[in-house]
Amino acid sequence: MKFIKQFLYSLSFLGIVILSVMCKDEKKKEVTQKIEKVSIEKNEFGTTPDGGKVDRYTLKNSSGMTVDIITYGGIITSIKVPNKEGVSEDVVLGYNNLDRYMESSPYFGAIIGRYGNRIAKGKFSLDGKEYSLAVNNGENHLHGGIKGFDKVVWKASEETGEYYAALKLVYLSKDMEEGYPGGLNTTVTYTLKEDNSLDMLYEATTDKKTIVNLTNHSYFNLSGDFSKTVLDQVLSLNADKYLPVDNTLIPTGEIAEVKNTPFDFRKPTSIGSRIEADDDQLKKGGGYDHCWVLNGQDKGHRLIGTAYDPESGRVLEVFTTEPGVQFYSGNFLDGTLPAKQGGTYKKRSGFCLETQHYPDSPNQLDFPSVVLNPEEKYSSKTTYKFSTK
Ligand code: BGC
């Protein structure tokens, strides 16, 4: 009897030991699988004329999304995401090599800084002192000037966690670079997650009072076929108002209702359905090239817009902490720039949703402030999230 009891005890002890070893193994497997889900890889991409080495980082998850980012301009050179059949294709315009980006690019995929969009005549004042910025767009300053953040080489570092792969880019812009006061220490962190979202966190500090307004200039074509225009792709924007512009695309100062205009995207509407309407503002922009005043400005990081391509089923949702978004319908693409897939980028073959403060804010006192003081930290977050339906 005693022997049987002892035998049973030993048997159950052995069982517990085997079970716990198996569980540990399972857990280990789970953790390794999680780590294997996201990855980041570094490759050489080219060299700038002054010998600067440019790398390309590839961020990958296990849901079929891949993002390529180069250290020149922090440019997103490719975003591959699945269509409704599960086929991953590239959905952002760009080039295959560095030379093309350096030769001529309408800011394809780039980080824009120090100031997203235009500042009238390149002039603004801070504490009674007038500053003159580089003028590079007719009489105006556009996207940070002649050598903006899109044309500098950023210092990169990588980080991976169980469910994310992140690329941190740092650039120190010197005092008076392109005419801006203050040394601006800037960090942009791209984070790819398992849910097919790409976070962009922009942070900056300054050693002198200055202005800052950072964004990303990706041109999307959700079809994955760059020979098509985006006119059949459907957009919704959570905005009751937008900013009408003058002939040089500087906001007039008026904050206009979108109601009963071709600028009303509160319900999903195809980009092309009203783009040729007889409308003074559309004529001034050559299509859509305006800043929408977003709703829910006190709500932090929230959904502000959705784009959808009915054919591929791809959906892009944009979340941001910013008060505005520049919706640009690729009007200046004119069939001269070579496309990644062959052929050229024709008019309206891509659209941009540039989350930002309003253009020309330093000269328009009614617009939310873009001033950054030395004791403050600039922080702005935008997310591109992909899915299908
Ligand atoms: C501007 C356009 C400009 C484009 C590319 C957009 O953000 O609003 O007017 O042509 O960027 O430079």
Automatic annotation (TrEMBL):
SUPFAM superfamilies: Galactose mutarotase-like. Pathway: Carbohydrate metabolism; hexose metabolism. It comes from the Bacteria. Pfam families: Aldose_epim (PF01263). InterPro entries: Ald1_epimerase_CS, Aldose_1-epimerase, Aldose_1/G6P_1-epimerase, Gal_mutarotase_sf_dom, Galactose_mutarotase-like, GH-type_carb-bd. Its cofactor is Ca(2+). Belongs to the aldose epimerase family. Monomer. This is Aldose 1-epimerase.
